[in-house]
Design brief:
about 300 residues, alpha+beta, Hsp33 domain, CBS domain Like, 2 domains, six-stranded mixed sheet, elongated, binds zinc ion
């Protein structure tokens, strides 16, 4: 297939004569690479896929270079789901569970009393933003719709689907009408919702975004933007891990060394191993070049 290198795309569109915009995303390679590095149960794996699609949709609504985190926490079997995406199209994800979960576990059962937090950090300076809502509605898509109602106050509908190695999502949003209220926009928003509602998860996962949009909205006058390619990328490094170990403190590092002979840390996102032996740990806590000003005081 000619498009084999372009499977992971996000396609944005707007209704030409109404204040309605939308996005469709489809991920294969990004999703496959994210979950290949971990041994997740199928229910968790699907949730990671939905989370990747969700973050791609959310990041595409941002106008400046930003990093966006979607974080789901609960006292239930799923303790943490963290999906990170950037406006440059790179993404990574991790999930932590307290126990193994059966294949068809609902989000309510995975994350009872959970919260969903969205954090946006501009990469070129500026204020951080964080919005937190209770996890409700039984799916990540419903939780996001709830988030948009609470935080952005823009009517928004979200569809997410993930299975096997395909993850996909769609978002439609009603924008504030320019120059006051226009009743024609009510019709367009209702129509967009009714057309979008006919989509199945299977179609969303199977069809390229552009084709998906054409099929759903073929009678509408749409404007399509250039698609955004998406890919898995981790930003972990030995320096960052060293800084994290330094933060844990010399006593704890020496204790681990004494017990295990080496300090080995795996990146939570990409599972890359980082090994620090006795010499490395010694250097971490004595070499002024790698020592932070705060840790200086402890000597
Ligand atoms: Zn990593």
């Amino acid at each position: 297939m000619a498009e084999s290198g372009d499977q992971d795309l996000l396609q944005r569109f707007v209704f030409a004569h109404a204040d309605v915009r939308g996005e469709v995303v489809r991920l294969e390679q990004t999703f496959a690479e994210t979950v290949a590095r971990h041994d997740y149960d199928p229910a968790i794996r699907s949730l990671v896929g939905e989370g990747l699609a969700a973050v791609a949709l959310l990041a595409a609504t941002l106008k400046y270079p930003c990093s966006l985190n979607l974080q789901l926490q609960s006292p239930g079997p799923l303790s943490l789901l963290l999906i990170q995406g950037r406006t440059d199209g790179t993404m990574r994800a991790m999930a932590r569970t307290r126990e193994s979960v059966p294949e068809q576990t609902s989000l309510d059962a995975l994350a009872p009393e959970g919260t969903l937090a969205i954090m946006i950090e501009p990469l070129e300076g500026g204020e951080r933003y964080q919005g937190v809502v209770d996890l409700r509605g039984g799916s990540l898509a419903s939780a996001l719709e709830h988030y948009f109602r609470e935080s952005e106050q823009l009517p928004t509908r979200v569809w997410l689907s993930a299975q096997s190695t395909q993850a996909a999502g769609m978002l439609i949003q009603r924008l504030p009408a320019e120059g006051g209220h226009d009743s024609r926009d009510d019709d367009a928003w209702q129509r967009a919702g009714m057309l979008a509602e006919t989509v199945t998860g299977e179609e969303l996962r199977a069809l390229p975004p552009r084709e998906m949009i054409r099929r759903l909205f073929h009678e509408e006058d749409l404007r399509l933007f250039d698609p955004t390619p998406l890919r898995f990328a981790c930003r972990c490094s030995r320096d960052r891990v060293a800084a994290m170990l330094e933060g844990l403190g010399e006593a704890e590092m020496r204790a681990t060394l004494a017990d295990e002979g080496v300090v080995e840390v795996h990146c939570d996102f990409c599972n890359a191993p980082y090994r620090f032996d006795a010499v490395d740990i010694e250097a971490l806590f004595t070499d002024p070049a790698v020592r932070s000003p705060e840790s200086h005081e402890s000597h």
